[in-house]
Amino acid sequence: MNELADWEWSELRFDCYKTDYNVRYSFTPEKGWSAMQLSEDEYLPVPLAAACLHYGSSLFEGLKAFRGVDGKVRIFRLEETVKRLQSSAARLCLPVPTREIIVEACMEVVRRNLRHLPPYGTGAAMYLRPLEIGTSTSFGVKPSEEALFVVFCSPVGPYFKGGIRPIDVAIDRQQDRVAANGTGDVKIGANYAASLLPYRNARTMGYSSVLFLDPKEHRYLDECVAANFYAIKNNTYITPDSTTILPSITNKTLRQVALDLGMRVEERPIPVEELSTFEECGCCGTGAILAPIRKIYDMQTEETYRFGDEVGAQSLKLYNHLLNIQYGLVEDIHGWNTLVE
């Protein structure tokens, strides 16, 4: 991991930096979940034949902690993260960590690494990465009965240095992110591995990300490499309704923010042809909150959809309002923040 001195907050990138502590829980069928183990080690003791290394028995989450304008430390959407992590564990037939384990692990990691939590006003935050891996050893393909649950953290700078700005995205109809009835709706490593080749191809062509289509008919918009898709027209926030996309917590939050700001919200299948009717669109996730899209290029049809060189007014309003909730600048009327005492 990278090293970072406390006084270099302005140099902070959206990257992984070394912090002081991480926490770990192990699971065996005989003993269940262990007590919390505090560690300074950056490495995990994983057997060569561990299920996570051979059969994709691994999952992860991402969420952030913020130091607010009032000096208080807040973890954003912790309870929603608990639900999604448990859903992923159940889908992979891994031991499911309890809510208490997940919450206390995240809280303790923040407490133990407070000196690495960026100050208010820097535009930076602390990124938390919970992960669970199957550690049973076998050459047979079967669910892992043993597991390791870990939470570590890193300070991260703003996703967009110098302010939010639109990106360019490419549609790739020849490659799918997930199978039609696969694991697209859970946050596991295999889904991201499948997107790496089309992502690299798009980057080579000068695009920041890939917008995948539904894997069954290739007619509807699905999601980007690591983010959900959204669009805006007629004062309406529109996002795909699909069983093959990850239920983004940021997207769920933005839908509620849109309602709070007087917009309408639609979750529904979005045919590719509808791109030409949108006033604004973008992708959203924990890292960037949202990344407005300047243009979308369809690699196969060679059609280009343009949405303007500047950040759209509605996208900017949604972005700023959500950021203000995270930093304690506006009232958290939905109880999305968990205070770290």
Describe the structure.
- The protein has 341 residues and is of the alpha+beta class.
- It folds into two domains: 9-156, Aminotransferase class 4, branched-chain amino acid transferase, N-terminal domain (D-amino Acid Aminotransferase, Chain A, domain 1, 2-Layer Sandwich); 167-326, Alpha-Beta Barrel (D-amino Acid Aminotransferase, Chain A, domain 2), CATH 3.20.10.10.
- The chain is 22% helix and 28% strand.
- It has six helices and 18 strands.
- The protein has helices spanning 51-54, 78-91, 99-112, 189-204, 249-260, 313-326, and strands spanning 22-28, 32-33, 37-39, 58-60, 63-67, 73-76, 125-134, 147-156, 167-171, 209-213, 221-224, 228-233, 236-239, 264-267, 280-285, 289-298, 304-306, 337-339.
- The strands form two sheets. Strands 1, 2, 3, 4, 5, 6, 7, 8 and 18 form a nine-stranded antiparallel sheet that branches. Strands 9, 10, 11, 12, 13, 14, 15, 16 and 17 form a nine-stranded mixed sheet that branches.
- A hairpin with a 3-residue loop joins strand 1 and strand 2 (32-33).
- Helix 2 packs across helix 3 (99-112) and helix 5 crosses helix 6.
- The longest helix has 16 residues, at 189-204.
- The chain is globular and about 55 Å long.
- The mean pLDDT is 95.
